[in-house]
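Revision sheet: structure tokens.
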Amino acid sequence: MPTLRALLLQRAARLQEWPAISVPGWGTLRYPAYRNRVEGVALGLMAAGAAPGAPAHAATGGPWDWIAELACACCGMVWSPAGAPVPAAILGGPDFNAEAGRQRYHDRERQVLEDTPFTGTLSHGELLARLARANRRLGWDHETEVLLPHDQLATAAVRGALWCALYGGSHAVLDPGTTRWDPGGFADLLD
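Predicted:
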């Protein structure tokens, strides 16, 4: 799979009955619902005219930040704290799942390639290679449940673990009460 977008699509197709993410207030989303949530934000971004390579970020402190990060990857945008904030109206608001972005989103698929930048330092292909190496070390799969501290969602370590969970097809559980969390090996994954 050459892109982060292809990773999400493949996981949603293969793991339809498996839980993808559990979040307080959302409950548990299975992989197809997870994909739909990500694509809803992506459609909103595309309707708003998101350009390939445009830097963006979300800093709500909640799970929409993670969904926005995935959506930016699917749109070929660069995830950067220096980028424009994803509007709240796209994050579950009135511009979520904007129909005007649907064709643009599908057209963008041909532009998002392995060498498309995703962060300031990593392309889609480079991040996927790192995720493959991490998954060999971790051994995560669709039967793995990963407990992550909800209050540390914005940290590089939790974001790295979420990427690893998606790569492994695992169930990420964002839990406000998680105290047993070892960020080792995840913090530098996205550098």
